[in-house]
Design brief:
5 strands; globular; Arc Repressor Mutant, subunit A; two-stranded parallel sheet; mainly alpha; single chain
């Protein structure tokens, strides 16, 4: 998208024009906003034209002393122009009142593109603050569950849900919605023998990650899931009739995808990151068996 600022920043620029109508709009930015910007790839000096455009956008966003916050979500899916512009801004906004917040999900990034790697390096050089988010603790989980349910939630109920989701906010919200629909969001109903099913959206997220794995890794996970949340890679390799080296390579791919983590206290043991990860895969396998499909043909 060399005739734009990138999909992410196009939205930002239009929001700034709407929210700050009195702010002076540089010529290159006005062309972008009005759809009159030339495709710089067709110009003689592509690098110079891109730099001029980026500098104009930087001037526009830092035009006065008013503080401004720009949030770019899902950076791992950002287009080339957006990443290049972010790289430029990261190197030149240190003295301004513009705050840039960019987020990305590590396990959705896969192999980093060269442009994304350059952007992350530029952010590091600019001494940006990096915050790695982890799961909520039990008290935070209780607060989130109570807010999502719109009612008081006991510490015991919150602790059980936290143990099931390990504090993943998305998993928690989906679990609450499911339990509310089944009228099971209380201690007595949660303690019933019937297991809590995996919410549909959670299962879809897990299976999407599994679907991106190499075929050998997905096949090995199907055996590991049958063994339970915690598994010995040597036992799983033997059950899957593969060499231990092949099994470890497959597990490495699952670890990189955020589906499996190594047990630091038991050599050769691993566990699914979340209880719902193993359960989602078991449910997928069961559905494939019922449909008469081969496991490796299950639609992910």
């Amino acid at each position: 998208m060399l005739d734009s600022a990138g999909a992410e920043f196009d939205v930002v620029l239009r929001a700034v024009r709407t929210g700050c109508p009195d702010r002076l709009v540089p010529g290159p930015v006005a062309e972008l906003l009005d759809g009159r910007a030339p495709d710089i790839s067709e110009l003689h000096d592509v690098a110079g034209a891109a730099l001029q455009r980026f500098e104009a956008i930087g001037q526009y966003l830092t035009a006065d002393d008013s503080p401004m916050v720009v949030v770019l979500d899902d950076l791992h899916w950002a287009d080339l122009a957006s990443l290049q512009l972010l790289t430029h801004l990261a190197d030149g906004i240190a003295a301004s009142r513009l705050l840039l917040v960019a987020s990305r999900r590590l396990h959705e990034s896969g192999s980093l593109s060269a442009t994304l790697s350059e952007t992350l390096a530029a952010l590091a050089r600019a001494e940006t603050l990096r915050i790695e988010l982890c799961g909520l603790d039990s008290e935070e989980a209780q607060a989130l569950v109570a807010a999502a349910a719109g009612q008081h939630i006991s510490a015991q109920t919150a602790t059980r849900l936290w143990a099931r989701t390990e504090g993943n906010p998305f998993f928690l919200r989906e679990m609450v919605e499911l339990l509310l629909s089944e009228q099971r969001l209380d201690e007595q109903r949660l303690d019933e023998l019937e297991p809590i099913p995996v919410p549909g959206p959670v299962r879809e997220v897990v299976l999407r990650r599994v679907g991106r794995l190499p075929e050998a890794a997905a096949a090995l996970l199907s055996v590991a899931a049958a063994a339970g949340r915690h598994f010995d890679v040597e036992v799983v390799a033997e059950a899957a009739s593969v060499e231990i080296e092949v099994a470890l390579e497959a597990i490495d791919a699952a670890v990189a995808a955020g589906l499996v983590v190594e047990n630091e206290h038991r050599l050769g043991w691993f566990r699914f990151t979340h209880a719902d990860a193993a359960e989602s895969w078991r449910q997928a396998l069961a559905a494939a068996d019922l449909a008469g499909d081969e496991v490796d043909r299950y639609p992910l």
